[in-house]
Protein backbone atom coordinates (compact mmCIF):
# COMPACT_ATOMS: atom_id res chain seq x y z
CA UNK A 1 0.00 0.00 0.00
CA UNK A 2 1.04 3.58 -0.47
CA UNK A 3 -0.03 6.71 1.36
CA UNK A 4 -1.73 9.32 -0.79
CA UNK A 5 -2.02 12.91 0.50
CA UNK A 6 -5.41 14.48 -0.25
CA UNK A 7 -6.59 18.05 -0.64
CA UNK A 8 -8.98 17.38 2.27
CA UNK A 9 -5.95 17.40 4.58
CA UNK A 10 -5.54 13.69 5.28
CA UNK A 11 -3.37 10.92 3.91
CA UNK A 12 -5.07 7.67 2.96
CA UNK A 13 -3.35 4.32 2.67
CA UNK A 14 -4.36 2.88 -0.71
CA UNK A 15 -3.97 -0.56 -2.30
CA UNK A 16 -4.05 -0.65 -6.11
CA UNK A 17 -4.23 -3.54 -8.57
CA UNK A 18 -5.06 -4.18 -12.22
CA UNK A 19 -5.62 -1.94 -15.23
CA UNK A 20 -8.67 -0.71 -17.12
CA UNK A 21 -11.98 0.63 -15.85
CA UNK A 22 -11.35 2.13 -12.41
CA UNK A 23 -13.35 0.77 -9.49
CA UNK A 24 -12.97 2.32 -6.03
CA UNK A 25 -13.87 -0.17 -3.28
CA UNK A 26 -15.35 1.47 -0.17
CA UNK A 27 -15.44 -0.51 3.06
CA UNK A 28 -18.03 -0.14 5.79
CA UNK A 29 -17.88 1.61 9.16
CA UNK A 30 -15.78 -0.49 11.53
CA UNK A 31 -13.85 -2.13 8.69
CA UNK A 32 -10.67 -1.54 6.68
CA UNK A 33 -9.61 -2.37 3.14
CA UNK A 34 -9.08 -5.94 4.39
CA UNK A 35 -12.84 -6.56 4.08
CA UNK A 36 -12.20 -6.92 0.33
CA UNK A 37 -9.51 -9.59 0.71
CA UNK A 38 -11.74 -12.37 -0.62
CA UNK A 39 -13.27 -10.22 -3.37
CA UNK A 40 -10.19 -8.72 -5.00
CA UNK A 41 -8.73 -12.00 -6.36
CA UNK A 42 -12.12 -12.76 -7.94
CA UNK A 43 -12.41 -9.50 -9.87
CA UNK A 44 -11.19 -9.14 -13.43
CA UNK A 45 -7.55 -8.07 -13.92
CA UNK A 46 -8.99 -5.76 -16.59
CA UNK A 47 -10.31 -3.56 -13.80
CA UNK A 48 -8.15 -0.99 -12.03
CA UNK A 49 -8.94 -1.45 -8.36
CA UNK A 50 -8.38 1.40 -5.90
CA UNK A 51 -8.91 0.19 -2.34
CA UNK A 52 -8.36 2.78 0.41
CA UNK A 53 -8.43 2.59 4.14
CA UNK A 54 -10.85 5.45 4.78
CA UNK A 55 -9.83 8.16 7.23
CA UNK A 56 -9.46 7.00 10.80
CA UNK A 57 -8.85 3.30 10.11
CA UNK A 58 -6.08 0.91 9.15
CA UNK A 59 -2.93 2.63 7.96
CA UNK A 60 -4.63 5.93 7.04
CA UNK A 61 -4.40 9.16 9.02
CA UNK A 62 -6.60 9.35 12.11
CA UNK A 63 -7.52 13.00 12.64
CA UNK A 64 -9.81 13.96 15.54
CA UNK A 65 -12.47 15.40 13.20
CA UNK A 66 -13.93 14.83 9.74
CA UNK A 67 -16.21 11.80 10.13
CA UNK A 68 -19.45 13.05 8.60
CA UNK A 69 -20.94 11.36 5.54
CA UNK A 70 -20.03 14.38 3.41
CA UNK A 71 -16.45 14.29 4.74
CA UNK A 72 -16.13 10.67 3.67
CA UNK A 73 -17.52 11.49 0.22
CA UNK A 74 -15.17 14.44 -0.22
CA UNK A 75 -12.22 12.19 0.65
CA UNK A 76 -13.27 9.87 -2.19
CA UNK A 77 -13.38 12.74 -4.68
CA UNK A 78 -10.05 14.07 -3.40
CA UNK A 79 -8.56 10.60 -3.85
CA UNK A 80 -9.75 10.54 -7.47
CA UNK A 81 -8.13 13.95 -7.93
CA UNK A 82 -4.86 12.82 -6.38
CA UNK A 83 -4.72 9.76 -8.64
CA UNK A 84 -5.67 11.68 -11.78
CA UNK A 85 -8.94 9.82 -12.24
CA UNK A 86 -11.80 11.72 -13.82
CA UNK A 87 -14.64 9.30 -13.10
CA UNK A 88 -14.79 5.90 -11.45
CA UNK A 89 -17.12 3.07 -10.59
CA UNK A 90 -17.81 2.92 -6.85
CA UNK A 91 -18.41 -0.41 -5.11
CA UNK A 92 -19.47 0.12 -1.51
CA UNK A 93 -20.31 -2.47 1.11
CA UNK A 94 -22.85 -1.64 3.83
CA UNK A 95 -22.22 1.97 4.94
CA UNK A 96 -19.49 2.19 2.29
CA UNK A 97 -22.41 2.07 -0.13
CA UNK A 98 -23.96 5.01 1.72
CA UNK A 99 -20.74 6.96 1.10
CA UNK A 100 -20.88 5.93 -2.57
CA UNK A 101 -24.43 7.28 -2.85
CA UNK A 102 -23.31 10.61 -1.36
CA UNK A 103 -20.51 10.89 -3.91
CA UNK A 104 -22.95 10.15 -6.75
CA UNK A 105 -25.35 12.78 -5.41
CA UNK A 106 -22.80 15.54 -4.78
CA UNK A 107 -20.41 14.80 -7.65
CA UNK A 108 -22.27 12.87 -10.36
CA UNK A 109 -19.66 13.75 -12.96
CA UNK A 110 -17.09 11.72 -11.00
CA UNK A 111 -19.15 8.51 -10.86
CA UNK A 112 -19.58 6.06 -13.74
CA UNK A 113 -21.88 3.85 -11.72
CA UNK A 114 -22.56 2.26 -8.34
CA UNK A 115 -22.44 -1.28 -7.00
CA UNK A 116 -24.20 -1.21 -3.61
CA UNK A 117 -23.55 -4.36 -1.57
CA UNK A 118 -25.86 -4.68 1.44
CA UNK A 119 -26.01 -0.89 1.51
CA UNK A 120 -28.63 1.22 3.33
CA UNK A 121 -30.86 3.86 1.81
CA UNK A 122 -31.46 5.62 5.14
CA UNK A 123 -29.50 5.52 8.41
CA UNK A 124 -30.89 8.71 9.92
CA UNK A 125 -32.12 8.42 13.48
CA UNK A 126 -30.93 7.01 16.80
CA UNK A 127 -28.32 4.27 16.85
CA UNK A 128 -30.25 0.96 17.12
CA UNK A 129 -30.51 -0.24 20.71
CA UNK A 130 -28.43 -3.42 20.42
CA UNK A 131 -25.64 -1.61 18.58
CA UNK A 132 -25.76 1.35 20.97
CA UNK A 133 -25.42 -1.01 23.93
CA UNK A 134 -22.38 -2.73 22.44
CA UNK A 135 -20.68 0.57 21.63
CA UNK A 136 -21.35 1.86 25.13
CA UNK A 137 -19.39 -1.11 26.47
CA UNK A 138 -16.35 -0.58 24.21
CA UNK A 139 -13.09 -0.04 26.05
CA UNK A 140 -10.36 2.44 25.19
CA UNK A 141 -8.34 1.12 23.48
CA UNK A 142 -10.83 -1.22 21.85
CA UNK A 143 -10.20 -4.92 22.50
CA UNK A 144 -10.80 -8.10 20.54
CA UNK A 145 -13.63 -8.94 22.95
CA UNK A 146 -15.28 -5.62 22.04
CA UNK A 147 -15.10 -6.50 18.34
CA UNK A 148 -16.57 -9.94 18.99
CA UNK A 149 -19.46 -8.37 20.91
CA UNK A 150 -20.14 -6.18 17.88
CA UNK A 151 -20.06 -9.23 15.62
CA UNK A 152 -22.84 -10.66 17.77
CA UNK A 153 -25.30 -8.01 16.50
CA UNK A 154 -24.25 -8.64 12.88
CA UNK A 155 -24.86 -12.38 12.55
CA UNK A 156 -23.72 -14.37 9.54
CA UNK A 157 -26.23 -16.52 7.66
CA UNK A 158 -23.73 -18.66 5.75
CA UNK A 159 -20.20 -19.92 6.53
CA UNK A 160 -17.20 -17.59 6.28
CA UNK A 161 -13.59 -18.82 6.69
CA UNK A 162 -12.29 -18.38 10.24
CA UNK A 163 -9.03 -16.95 8.91
CA UNK A 164 -10.94 -14.13 7.19
CA UNK A 165 -12.93 -13.39 10.36
CA UNK A 166 -9.71 -13.30 12.39
CA UNK A 167 -8.20 -10.84 9.92
CA UNK A 168 -11.27 -8.59 10.18
CA UNK A 169 -11.03 -8.56 13.98
CA UNK A 170 -7.34 -7.71 13.87
CA UNK A 171 -7.89 -4.93 11.33
CA UNK A 172 -10.74 -3.45 13.38
CA UNK A 173 -8.36 -3.05 16.31
CA UNK A 174 -6.61 -0.34 14.28
CA UNK A 175 -9.64 1.93 14.79
CA UNK A 176 -9.50 4.25 17.82
CA UNK A 177 -12.57 4.38 20.06
CA UNK A 178 -13.13 8.04 19.15
CA UNK A 179 -13.31 7.12 15.46
CA UNK A 180 -15.79 4.29 16.10
CA UNK A 181 -18.07 6.77 17.86
CA UNK A 182 -17.57 9.70 15.49
CA UNK A 183 -18.10 7.45 12.48
CA UNK A 184 -21.44 6.09 13.61
CA UNK A 185 -22.54 9.58 14.66
CA UNK A 186 -21.69 10.87 11.20
CA UNK A 187 -23.80 8.16 9.58
CA UNK A 188 -26.93 8.49 11.71
CA UNK A 189 -27.00 12.29 11.63
CA UNK A 190 -26.50 12.62 7.86
CA UNK A 191 -29.36 13.42 5.51
CA UNK A 192 -29.89 10.27 3.44
CA UNK A 193 -28.58 10.90 -0.09
CA UNK A 194 -31.78 9.58 -1.69
CA UNK A 195 -33.80 12.12 0.35
CA UNK A 196 -31.55 14.98 -0.73
CA UNK A 197 -31.63 14.73 -4.52
CA UNK A 198 -31.55 12.41 -7.48
CA UNK A 199 -28.94 9.74 -8.16
CA UNK A 200 -28.75 9.25 -11.90
CA UNK A 201 -25.97 6.75 -12.61
CA UNK A 202 -26.19 3.02 -13.42
CA UNK A 203 -26.70 1.20 -10.12
CA UNK A 204 -26.53 -2.45 -9.11
CA UNK A 205 -28.00 -3.35 -5.70
CA UNK A 206 -26.92 -6.66 -4.13
CA UNK A 207 -29.02 -7.57 -1.09
CA UNK A 208 -29.19 -10.44 1.41
CA UNK A 209 -32.65 -12.00 1.70
CA UNK A 210 -32.03 -12.65 5.41
CA UNK A 211 -30.65 -9.21 6.31
CA UNK A 212 -31.78 -8.56 9.89
CA UNK A 213 -29.93 -5.25 10.20
CA UNK A 214 -31.63 -3.24 7.44
CA UNK A 215 -35.29 -3.59 6.48
CA UNK A 216 -36.04 -5.01 3.04
CA UNK A 217 -37.91 -1.80 2.23
CA UNK A 218 -34.52 -0.09 1.92
CA UNK A 219 -33.49 -2.43 -0.89
CA UNK A 220 -36.64 -1.48 -2.79
CA UNK A 221 -36.06 2.20 -2.11
CA UNK A 222 -32.61 1.90 -3.67
CA UNK A 223 -34.18 0.00 -6.57
CA UNK A 224 -36.22 3.14 -7.32
CA UNK A 225 -33.01 4.74 -8.66
CA UNK A 226 -33.70 5.16 -12.36
CA UNK A 227 -32.12 2.34 -14.36
CA UNK A 228 -31.06 0.37 -11.30
CA UNK A 229 -31.11 -3.39 -10.89
CA UNK A 230 -31.81 -5.27 -7.64
CA UNK A 231 -30.41 -8.77 -7.09
CA UNK A 232 -31.42 -10.61 -3.91
CA UNK A 233 -29.21 -13.41 -2.60
CA UNK A 234 -31.09 -16.14 -0.79
CA UNK A 235 -29.62 -17.53 2.43
CA UNK A 236 -27.55 -14.37 2.92
CA UNK A 237 -27.52 -11.88 5.79
CA UNK A 238 -26.43 -8.26 6.02
CA UNK A 239 -22.74 -9.01 5.43
CA UNK A 240 -23.27 -9.84 1.77
CA UNK A 241 -19.63 -9.18 0.82
CA UNK A 242 -18.32 -11.52 3.52
CA UNK A 243 -20.78 -14.30 2.76
CA UNK A 244 -20.98 -14.21 -1.05
CA UNK A 245 -17.74 -12.81 -2.54
CA UNK A 246 -17.93 -15.08 -5.59
CA UNK A 247 -21.42 -13.89 -6.51
CA UNK A 248 -20.60 -10.26 -5.77
CA UNK A 249 -17.55 -10.46 -8.04
CA UNK A 250 -19.43 -12.12 -10.90
CA UNK A 251 -22.38 -9.75 -10.70
CA UNK A 252 -20.22 -6.63 -10.35
CA UNK A 253 -17.94 -7.53 -13.27
CA UNK A 254 -20.89 -8.33 -15.54
CA UNK A 255 -22.68 -5.12 -14.55
CA UNK A 256 -19.65 -2.91 -15.17
CA UNK A 257 -18.93 -4.56 -18.51
CA UNK A 258 -22.54 -4.08 -19.62
CA UNK A 259 -22.63 -0.41 -18.60
CA UNK A 260 -19.12 0.81 -19.41
CA UNK A 261 -19.23 4.01 -21.43
CA UNK A 262 -16.83 6.02 -23.54
CA UNK A 263 -16.59 8.65 -20.81
CA UNK A 264 -12.89 9.45 -20.11
CA UNK A 265 -11.65 7.63 -17.02
CA UNK A 266 -8.52 9.73 -16.49
CA UNK A 267 -8.47 13.48 -16.22
CA UNK A 268 -5.78 15.04 -18.48
CA UNK A 269 -2.90 16.52 -16.55
Q: What does this entry look like structurally?
A:
The protein has 269 residues and is α/β, with parallel strands linked by helices. The protein has a single domain (2-259), classed as Rossmann fold (3-Layer(aba) Sandwich), CATH 3.40.50. The protein has 10 helices and 8 strands. It has an 8-stranded mixed beta sheet with strand order 1-2-4-3-5-6-7-8, sandwiched between helices. It is globular and about 50 Å long.
- Give the termini distance in whole angstroms: 24 Å
Major sheet summary line: 8 strands, mixed
Helix/strand structural class: alpha/beta
CATH fold type: Rossmann fold
| CATH homologous superfamily grouping | Alpha/Beta hydrolase fold, catalytic domain
Please report the first level of CATH classification, the CATH class.
Answer: Alpha Beta
The whole-number mean of residue pLDDT values reads 95
Question: Topology, pairings included?
Answer:
Elements (H helix, E strand, L loop, with lengths): L1 E4 L5 E7 L3 E6 L20 E6 L16 H14 L5 E6 L1 H12 L4 E7 L11 H8 L7 H8 L10 H11 L4 H13 L3 H4 L6 E6 L7 H7 L6 E5 L6 H4 L1 H15 L10
Parallel strand pairs: 3-4, 3-5, 5-6, 6-7, 7-8
Antiparallel strand pairs: 1-2, 2-4
